[in-house]
Amino acid sequence: LLLVALAYVGRRESCSLPSVLRKIATNNTLPAFFGKTKEIEKRQAINGKHHFLSHNSKKPKYSSHNIVMIITRHVACVLLFFLSCGIYSRNDCVAFAFSSPIKRTHPSPLRHAWALHYAPSSPSDSDNSSSPNNDSNDTTANNNNSNNKNAFNTECAIDDEDCNALSQMNFSTSFENNTDEECDYNDEDCKALQHVSLLASLRAREVEIESQKVKLLAEQTRYNWFHASCIKSVGVTLSDWVRKVAIDAYPIAVCGSRKGSVFVSDLEQGSVLSHALEAHDPNQEVVKGGVRVFSIFYKGEMLDHGPMAVAIQGNLIVSSGREGGVKFWKMGDMADRTKEDGSQELEALGNIPGLNKVLVTSLKFDQKGQLWVGCSDGTIRVYSFNNNDDDYTPTRLFTGYFQDSILDMYLCDEIGIGVCATLDGFAALFSLEDGEFIQSCGLFDRGVAARSVLVTNDGVVVDTANDSTTTTNMESRWSVVCGGMNGAIHRLRLNVDQSTGKVDYNNPFHVHEDTPTQINPSHEGPVVSLVSPTNGLFISGSSSGNFRVWDCSYGDVSNVESSSSSESSEEEEESDSLPNSLYDLTGENSCLISACTDGSRLISVGCLAPTLIVHDFTAD
User: Is 521 exposed, middle or buried (0-12, 13-18, 19+ CB in 10 A)?
Assistant: First the structure.
């Protein structure tokens, strides 16, 4: 019909179909279809061949035939104009154009999905489809994805990330076979974009950033520990002098005061969350058989009624006093406030049975939630709590026996052992599986008690140098550190199998008779606290009021090569050295009694202060 209309209205040479095509091919422009020039109108008027003007009047004479001809000619010209711009075939998705194609720098995802849906379904159809302006696109698509015949390639600006992301999408999967419930079956736009998971990409990047943040923070904190970079502050101020402190997860800490009270505090907010005033009766005498041990803890001040030990795990709190036994408490909902100062009473759950006539000196929770109780009668008793019940019913599991009274205890879940410091100056190892005694080692002179004990991971750094690269591996080397009442500190290397991560029960200590174990310099007073915030470093606290930070890392071994077991053991002994003193934190407390750490902060208490002091090593 278009060709008939063009032939009908183009009866004159100026508007004939051959003339129109010739002008388009030569000038790439359209002729003047919407009206003849003045010169042509004048010539045709003279010759009497004008269709619109009569011989006697300049005004046009409109008839039905003329109106139809005008409308037909203009419609035909409009259709011819669109024909000159381009003809698009939906079936083959191929564009034919007489003029240059329009370049889209921001392609629409809907156009992208439409093009993919109507793309050829077989390689033969794709090969048969060709056009003057898709050769370069086909070449690029073949280079980027030779196996994907249906890949859609779009010309994108260099800085258009969205366009580039869409052009690199993999559409090898058929949408008809996709059963994703998030997209309707006929929703082609959703199916075209479902492979681009921007949210998943952002979440993965967020996890990666958080991981990098944690790693950088750990590196910064470790650097601060080794270079004495910290911020000192008062965590909380109580109404009584503080005697003991323990922490489970910062900033929640539990502490015992001189009058036998127990407080649960928030060290960031500087507030008391819960408390049990005079939890341990100050009028009670020291339990029989525990006077000597009690005097070691509090320098013979028999009028001091402070607790012997405290511990916390979650909402469960335990404490022991001079009267003997262990009391355990439950911290309720923080929203339930019953006191004017904003704190609430701890819910008393009773006493652990079987310990009422024993002075308990040490309380520790392991990673399983079991409570280990060190006693002055030379026993370690282990209890589990039924957290399903509201009363946390304790159940006794087993008991370990030692030669003398236990003054301190440390549990190392990583290698499955514990160690305790005894009144006779020994450091004794025991198994965390059944509490059985393994072996002990005497470290101090006769009459000098072992006051505190610790297990450290010395974190050996091994640099293996190849031809072009150097890799750093961390190897675990474990040691027992024990502080005495005379201010001396000893270090004993442990025999730990690197493949199993367990201690050799037959020969647990890697020492000989002539192996030096004492590290220098010694403290002026009893070593009442030992903590290790990170691998290769530990802190000793003295009752004289100062902390000393030690570098116990095994050292750097470069260009490590395989050798026999005898040669490697000799090299270990030669390269192994005692810990070095890095720096002291002095003037913190007039008389240090207790300290603990969460790996990033050091929390300490003194005998003549109602405050908890926090040294924060996380600051940049």
Answer: exposed
Strand runs labelled E in 155-251? 231-237, 242-247
Would you state the pLDDT for residue 88? Answer: 43
What region, left, alpha or beta, does residue 233 occupy, with left being phi > 0 and alpha being psi -120 to 50 degrees? beta
One domain for residues 467 and 494: yes
CB 284 within 8 A of CB 323: yes
How far apart are the C-alpha atoms of 514 and 130, rounded to whole Å? 90
Q: Please check whether residues 477 and 522 belong to one and the same domain.
A: yes
Residue 220 near residue 620 (C-beta atoms within 8 A): yes
pLDDT tens sequence across 95-146: 443 334 444 444 444 444 444 444 444 444 444 444 444 444 444 444 444 4
Residue 101 DSSP code = P
Structural domain that includes position 22: 2-85
Tell me which of 195, 220, 241 is where a domain ends.
195
Query: Do 556 and 461 meet the contact criterion of CB atoms below 8 Å apart?
Result: yes
Weakest-pLDDT range from 87-91, 289-293, 360-364, 418-422: 87-91
**Tens digits of residue pLDDT in 512-526:** 888 899 999 999 999
Q: For residue 379, give the 3-state DSSP assignment.
A: strand
**Residue among 369, 357, 396, 393 nearest 380 (CA):** 396
What three-state secondary structure class fits 193?
helix
CATH number at residue 428: 2.40.128.630
Q: Distance between CA atoms of 555 and 575, rounded to whole angstroms?
A: 8
CA distance 612 to 257: 11
| Model-wide pTM > 0.90 | no
Residue 349 has pLDDT above 70, yes or no: yes
CA distance 383 to 265: 26
Q: How many helices (H) and strands (E) does the chain have?
A: 12, 34
Residue 259 lies in a domain: no
Nearest to 587 by CA among 521, 542, 539, 527: 542
Q: Which residue has the higher pLDDT, 426 or 299?
A: 426
Indicate whether 448 and 583 sit together in one domain.
Answer: yes
The half-sphere exposure of 481 on its side-chain side, counting CA atoms within 13 A, is: 28
Give the gyration radius of the chain's Cα atoms. Answer: 44
| Same domain? 75 vs 100 | no
606-617 per-residue burial string, b: 16 or more CB within 10 A, e: under 16: bbebebbbbbbb
Which token pair is 436? 């059985």
Relative to beta strand 580-585, strand 592-597 is unpaired
Same structural domain, 529 and 418: yes
CB 431 within 8 A of CB 417: yes
C-alpha torsion 387→392→395→398, nearest 10? 80
- β-bridge pairing 271-276 and 344-345: parallel
Residue 238 in any domain: the answer is no
Structure tokens at 173: 């999967």
At 545, the amino acid letter reads G
Same domain, 427 and 525: yes
Among 64, 85, 106, where does a domain finish? 85
pLDDT digits (tens, 9 = 90+) for 249-275: 999 999 999 999 999 999 999 999 999
Between CA 423 and CA 411 the distance in angstroms is 19
- Helical spans, DSSP H, in 227-341: 291-298
| Residue type (1 letter), 104 | R
- Closest Cα to residue 483, out of 547, 573, 402, 404? 547
Asked if residue 271 lies in contact with residue 341, where contact means CB atoms within 8 angstroms, the answer is: no
